[in-house]
């Protein structure tokens, strides 16, 4: 059991945090381009019985 | 007296629709078709620009998808037979935007065929409003997650990982990602990427070809490969959508051009007819004097 899994993260979240940190550490001329890859607008709604569930869980940003 | 005018009114209306008014109507129609053509032409330009970008990004994303699916074929992962209550997961990769030919409908049709035979044992995740809109009426009960706000921007890995994150909350024995595989500017095929559960990967017969695997590594890799394959499928889907929109907008502009040609011809003919009729009226009126 790795330390990040013990903290309740899974590998996707773990690697995305690592990627974000790496992007922040880039030099400014590369950083602007890299940070464009960090945005995400997708919205996910859980569905049940053919209808969206109103109280949508806070979209877990990885 | 009144009955006579009542009889006359429809007759004179008919006359109008046949001649004078049509000139006006045709010119209005002509103008609107010209506007439509302008819109489709500019949409084509926009999607052509988006397409070149999507293709460039797809090239970069291809190894990601190939690597993820190579693992499953090398290790010969199959879904274990004879599990009680098998749950199949289907992920439809589409987008929110229409006017791009049959890209979304072909994905939805693929899933519909699957659902018709397998029924309620299948869970569906729809990425993009289009596949949700098509599937929700008949198979709304199968949908467990619906993602939207897709397709305005090129898909990012963060988008894919969010979907993968939500997907990991559901249990399934086997699954498929259904997406449009980009072949060339004018063609795509609707294909599927298999996804597997942890149980079926650990039971794979040739897992031994990979070195130093423990349960934790497999689980981490599975989580990552889910996001990677979704990312790849979304890139493929976005690229085929843009290319398909490009061709369909090109066709729409062409059709509008044809319509404009025909309408201009009828417009000119009608105008000529109106002029001739007026001349005849004037001349015959003059000769009657």
TrEMBL record, chain A:
Gene Ontology annotations for the cellular component aspect, listed alphabetically: mitochondrial inner membrane; proton-transporting ATP synthase complex
Domain of life: Eukaryota
Family according to the record: Belongs to the eukaryotic ATPase epsilon family.
Annotated GO MF terms: proton-transporting ATP synthase activity, rotational mechanism
One BP term from GO: proton motive force-driven mitochondrial ATP synthesis
InterPro entries, per the entry: ATP_synth_F1_esu_mt, ATP_synth_F1_esu_sf_mt
Identification of the protein by name: Protein stunted-like isoform X1
Pfam families assigned to the protein according to its UniProt record, in alphabetical order: ATP-synt_Eps (PF04627)
CDD domains in alphabetical order: F1-ATPase_epsilon
Record gene name: LOC103506238
Organism placement in taxonomy: Eukaryota, Metazoa, Ecdysozoa, Arthropoda, Hexapoda
Species for this entry: Diaphorina citri
Automatic annotation (TrEMBL), chain B:
Family according to the record: Belongs to the ATPase gamma chain family.
Membrane topology label: Peripheral membrane protein
SUPFAM superfamilies: ATP synthase (F1-ATPase), gamma subunit (SSF52943)
The protein's name: ATP synthase subunit gamma
Keywords: ATP synthesis, CF(1), Hydrogen ion transport, Ion transport, Membrane, Mitochondrion, Mitochondrion inner membrane, Transport
Pfam families noted in UniProt: ATP-synt (PF00231)
Record localization: Mitochondrion inner membrane
InterPro entries named in the record: ATP_synth_F1_ATPase_gsu, ATP_synth_F1_gsu, ATP_synth_F1_gsu_CS
GO CC terms of this entry: mitochondrial inner membrane; proton-transporting ATP synthase complex
Keyword Manganese appears in the UniProt entry: no
Domain of life: Eukaryota
Assembly and binders: F-type ATPases have 2 components, CF(1) - the catalytic core - and CF(0) - the membrane proton channel. CF(1) and CF(0) have multiple subunits.
PANTHER family the UniProt entry points to: ATP SYNTHASE GAMMA CHAIN, ATP SYNTHASE SUBUNIT GAMMA, MITOCHONDRIAL
CDD domains found in the cross-reference section: F1-ATPase_gamma
